[in-house]
Design a protein that fits this description.
Layout: H1 11-32, H2 39-50, E1 55-58, H3 65-75, E2 80-84, H4 91-95, E3 96-101, E4 106-111, E5 118-122, H5 129-141, E6 143-146, E7 149-152, E8 158-163, H6 176-179, E9 184-187, H7 193-206, H8 217-227, H9 234-246, H10 257-263, E10 266-268, H11 272-288, H12 296-307, E11 312-313, H13 315-319, H14 324-334
Helix pairs in contact: 1-2, 2-11, 9-11, 10-14, 11-12, 12-14
Length: 338
């Protein structure tokens, strides 16, 4: 059986991973001084930030999405910008425009709020498609063009977009091609009874102070670069590919009865972008767990958030009341892990 642990040459990488992992532990403690609960959300946000991926967060209003992102930005010493998406928003309100100065008869760039390290696109599905496209272009290219000049966005650059459930009034369904650009889609639920009591006490009576900065922008970029130096054994790489291909009924790698049953509920599987995202997110999860190498549990812990918004369910799945999460869990159970 092939070992999943790295060779001795990775000892130095492990030392660097330990250093960053301890710092991220302190960061999560700092966030926890302001935010009650949401430990899983903070972990997934850090995974996306480390993997240079963007997040689509779906949940009802009032669940501290904005406060969580703002608090995280404070602990990272990064610039934070919040953009409220509305039906009358224009692309120029997002990326900026050129202002004409009659005195010298020239145009000057006026950059928009997207020029920040961390951008919260609040209720992205309340704006029309052209505004969403303007943001997603910035996410993909990490740059914005105003007139004849292209401007690079700050580094690191990370977008967290929130959306209300699509059955609420005044929302637009995001096209699949746009949703695919988000590395993770996180579904946020209500807090527990104990957490809600703590929220009430902390926010009304305690009035918590802003957290202290733990990271700088340069340290975040160094951690992002370290991610690509971590060890991923060949069986783990094969496992990632097997999971991805198992979502595609047309290119199944096995005739397992359990897998065929899952695939019968899927019309279209995920793209190779999901393969890259699953690899990088698993590396980030391993780093947060103080390891310089990936194990199958790392992949399973991020698979739902990587895949749930990328598979297209069949009408049969909807008729049987099956969700993407249920099918992905069955798929993971059907694909053998190394």
């Amino acid at each position: 059986m092939t070992s999943l642990a790295p060779p001795p040459a990775y000892q130095q990488i492990q030392e660097h991973v330990d250093g960053y992992a301890h710092a991220f532990d302190r960061l999560r403690q700092a966030v926890g001084q302001v935010i009650v609960g949401q430990h899983d959300l903070v972990r997934k946000m850090l995974i996306a930030l480390l993997a240079k991926g963007h997040v689509l967060l779906e949940g009802m209003p009032g669940l501290a999405k904005t406060l969580t992102v703002q608090t995280l930005a404070q602990t990272l010493s990064l610039d934070f910008s919040r953009i409220q998406f509305t039906p009358d928003l224009l692309p120029a309100d997002l990326i900026g425009t050129q202002i004409y100065h009659p005195k010298d008869q020239t145009f000057y760039p006026k950059t928009g709020p997207v020029f920040a390290n961390i951008v919260l696109a609040d209720e992205i599905n309340r704006a029309p498609a052209k505004v969403q496209s303007a943001l997603l272009e910035a996410m993909q290219e990490k740059q914005v063009t105003l007139g004849d000049t292209t401007y690079s966005l700050p580094r690191p650059f990370w977008v967290m977009a929130t959306q209300n459930p699509v059955d609420q009034e005044g929302t637009y369904v995001l096209p699949e091609a746009q949703v695919d650009r988000f590395m993770l889609k996180i579904n946020l639920d209500y807090p527990s009874r104990e957490e809600e009591r703590m929220i009430m006490d902390r926010m009304i009576e305690a009035n918590p102070n802003p957290p202290q900065a733990v990271f700088t922008a340069e340290q975040i970029q160094a951690a992002q670069n370290l991610l690509r130096q971590m060890y991923v054994a060949d069986p783990i790489k094969d496992y990632i590919v097997d999971i991805i291909r198992a979502t595609r009924p047309q290119t199944s790698m096995t005739s397992s009865d359990n897998l065929r049953q899952v695939q019968s509920y899927i019309d279209f599987g995920v793209s190779p972008r999901a393969t890259l995202s699953l690899n990088l997110a698993a590396r980030a999860q391993a780093l947060l767990e103080h390891r310089c190498y990936v194990i199958p549990d790392d992949i399973k812990s991020v698979a739902l958030d990587i895949l749930r918004h990328r598979i297209t369910l069949s009408y049969r799945a909807e008729a049987d009341g099956l969700t993407a999460d249920t099918l992905i869990q069955r798929l993971l159970a059907a694909v053998p892990a190394p």
